[in-house]
Amino acid sequence: MPFILGLIGLATAAYFMVIRARRGAEMASELMDVASDVRAAARRFGFRRKQNIHPVDSIDDPKLALGGLSAAFMALDDLPTQDGRTALDAQLRNHLELDSQQAQEIAVLGQWFVETCGGADAAVKRLSKRLYALDKGQSFGVLMAVIQGTIHSTGHPLSTRQSEALVDIKRAFHLS
Length: 176
Known about the structure:
Elements lengths: L1 H43 L17 H14 L6 H15 L3 H18 L2 H16 L4 H15 L5 H13 L4
Helix pairs in contact: 1-4, 2-3, 2-4, 2-5, 2-6, 3-4, 3-6, 4-5, 5-7
């Protein structure tokens, strides 16, 4: 009898290990899909990461920096909803004259920039400086239109972190 119980226990443990290994493989596959999405979006916009330089400092297209900054700003809200992401895509399409796929790819790259910066707060500061360096502040009005349109579309008021980020953005654009 103890021998049978031991075999059942061993079979149960093996079953759970197999299930866990399969889930790990699925998670790795999902991560690879995300990585390929970021690579495809980067390729489409001609973004090339330069060696020994932070990815944000490698941005050469103001539209990419503006979209990344908008995505970082929305990420400051504790949990951006699907409605918020949809509203951001619509604002990027309208104000940057992009098609749907380009707007989504900019949002994907924007999220990647947030992750490489170590969080939304750092990304807002770094992307603001980069955007100012690219066009000397000419895109500030477009940026504010994208942010205001997105906030208005979602119906949520600005969070405290977002209000503080607006001050950081103005400072980066030498407006305060």
